[in-house]
Amino acid sequence: MSDNPPIEFAFPELRKWEKGAAPYIHVFDSGKPGPTVMVAALTHGNEVSGAVVVDALLDKGLRPRKGALILGFNNIEAYHSFDPRTPFKSRMIDEDFNRTWGRLGQPATTVETRRAQLVKPFVERADLLLDLHSMHDDGVPLMLAGPLAKGVEFAKQVGTPVDIIADSGHAAGMRMRDYGGFGDPKSAKNALLIETGQHWRASSVTVAQDVTARFLVASGVVGPADLPADWKQPTPAKQRVVEVTHAIATKRGNFIPARQFEGQEVIAKAGTVLGHDDGEPVTTPYDDCVLVMPAVNRPLRAGVTVVRLGRLV
């Protein structure tokens, strides 16, 4: 992926949404019984497809028919720092917003922990959460459903994209989608995280629109007629579930891939060499191993995940 990939859509001006229930967070309550549903964008500041969708929903004046609807922009400061000359740097200001959720009881010392503490009451209020993300590299859309069966089942209700990823997150810290009741198998709360495709592809906006419309209708707080008619795309003939079993991280940033890899590529044979890290071979642990969001085709820092390995279930 180029350091300056093409940006195929206009970024929305979001300062008009600063004033809400909290800065850049808007809550609409129907006054009727029903779930509280949250759609969040900009968990990473350069993942803009979700911001286009939430901006459009606010512009449209979408209101829930029952329950409550929360629409928010998470790392808004990172978004406002975007520079097209160095577009990947606006992912965050001080640290990854989506690794802070396991330590919000500690003093907030970064832009991201301060923002997460402000967002936290709204996340805690939500019964259903959709977290809108996109990817550094080109790849097929992925629905990250978390490690629990309830997440996978909800992803199947949404009905798209093809690939549902059952995973436990990152060793570096808890994700928002795993926080509180979302990560509790005994809780009825549920959350999904969609990776819509490469950050600035127009197709990523199309995926974000489709998934958001389906999620909101599945939640029951709105009906199909409440949403733009052109957002919903054809439903895939079938979905598949990939269970992540390994996360391969480079020790010192010296991983050398055996070749160019594609996201969701299936490697037929166990023991296939994917590359070498500090000269040590990294191989597939089983037949029909799925490569989930490989980052091996670009330079990496020490400790960064090179690829997640999954099996079809």
In short:
The protein has 5 helices and 14 strands. It has 313 residues and is of the alpha/beta class.
Question: If you had to describe this structure to a student in words, what would you say it looks like?
Answer:
With 313 residues, the chain is α/β, with parallel strands linked by helices. It folds into two domains: 15-226, 3-Layer(aba) Sandwich (Aminopeptidase), CATH 3.40.630.10; 242-312, Beta Barrel (OB fold (Dihydrolipoamide Acetyltransferase, E2P)), CATH 2.40.50.100. It is 19% helix and 25% strand. The protein has five helices and 14 strands. It has an eleven-stranded mixed beta sheet with strand order 1-3-2-4-7-5-6-8-14-13-10, sandwiched between helices. Strands 9-11-12 form a three-stranded antiparallel beta sheet, with no helix packed on it. Helix 1 links the parallel strand 2 and strand 3 (68-73). The longest helix has 18 residues, at 202-219. It is globular. The mean pLDDT is 95.
